[in-house]
TrEMBL record:
Keyword Ribosomal protein part of the UniProt annotation: no
Pfam families on file: Transglut_core
Domain Transglutaminase-like per the UniProt entry, residue ranges: 113-179
Zinc listed as a keyword: no
UniProt GO cellular component terms: cytoplasm
Annotated PANTHER family: CYTOKINESIS PROTEIN 3
Keywords: Signal
Protein name: Transglutaminase-like domain-containing protein
Transmembrane region(s): none
UniProt-listed InterPro entries: CAP/Cytokinesis_protein (IPR052557), Papain-like_cys_pep_sf (IPR038765), Transglutaminase-like (IPR002931)
Signal peptide: 1-17
Amino acid sequence: MRLAFLFLFLSCAIGFGQFVNLNESDFSKADSIAFSYKGHSLKNPPLLTYELTKDLTTDVEKFRAIFTWVCTNIENDYQSYLKTRKKRKKIQKDRARFLAWNESFTPKVFEKLVAEKRTACTGYAYLIKEMANLAGFQSEIVNGYGRTPTLLLEENDPPNHSWNTVKLDGKWYLCDATWSAGRIMLDDSGPRFEPDYDDVYFLPNPELFTKNHYPLELELSLLEELPSLTDFIVAPVIYKEAFRFGIAPILPEKMHLEVLRDVNTSFELKIPEGLDVKKFRLALNKGGKDVEVQPKITLLKPGKIRMEYTFNRTGLYDAHIVFDGDKIATYVVKVRRN
C-alpha cells in the first residue's frame, strides 16, 4: 500500500516532461557566465551557485549556467565508475537495499568531488541536484540504465547510470551532465577522460531521451508510457547526433534483424517537420569500412519517414542510419538467402 501511494505521489508530483529546442534557444549569456568561473573552487557551493545565477532572469537560463559549469569543470572518473558498478552488481536484486545504498553513497561521492573535481555519474547527478536546490529548483537523481554504442546491456546487468530531473518554471525536464561533459577514451595507456562539452543532453525530449536512458522508477521518465526494460535493451543503438537533429528511430523496434536477400527492408523514423530528407543515407559495413548507399525515402506524414533498401548479398551488416554525414542509429542486419 505504501509503495502504491509513493508511486501515485511521484506521478502527480513529477507529471509529464517538457523539452527545450536548442536550435531556437540563446544561452550565450548563461554559458559566458559559466565559462568565466572555470576552475572556481567547489568548497562553497552556495556562493558559486549564486554567482552563476544572479545576473540571469529565467529559470532555464539559471539552470543552464549551472549545467554548463558542472559539465566543463568536472572530470569523469572511470575508476570510480568501475567501483560503483561492482557494488551495484552485488545488490542489484534487492531493489530497496540498492536505493538505500545509493542514497547514502552519494554524499560520500560528493566529498571526493569537492576535493578533486573528479567523479562518476553518481557524483555529477548529486552535484546537479545540490546546485539546482541551492538556486531554488526542485531536482531529483534518477538511477537506471544508460545504453550507448560502446555500452550495450544484457537482461541481468545491474543499473549502470545516474542522471537528473529538474523543475523549471513549473515544468519538469530531464538532463544528463555526465554524458554532456565528454567521453572516456580507452587506449594503451589506460582509461582517460576527454572533455568535450556537448549540450544535447540539456533538457532533451523525454521520448528521445528514453531511447538510451531507462529509469528504475518509471515515473521519472516523464512519459505517460515506457517500453519494458527488455524492449529497451534490444532496441537499436542511437547516437548523440539523434538528439542534435531530433531524429528518433521507430521501426524496426529491435536492433538485430534477419531479412531476406532481394527483399525490401524498411526503417521508419520520427523527424522534425521541415528536415531535409534528402540528407538521409544508409551506411553499410560488412566487416570493413562503411559504404554509404541511397535508400528510397518516403514521407509517410509530416514528421515521419520510411527508408527502404534491398540487400542483394547475404551476410552480416552493421546498418547505420546517417543524416548529413552523422550517424543517428545502428541496426545489425543478417541477410540470408530466400
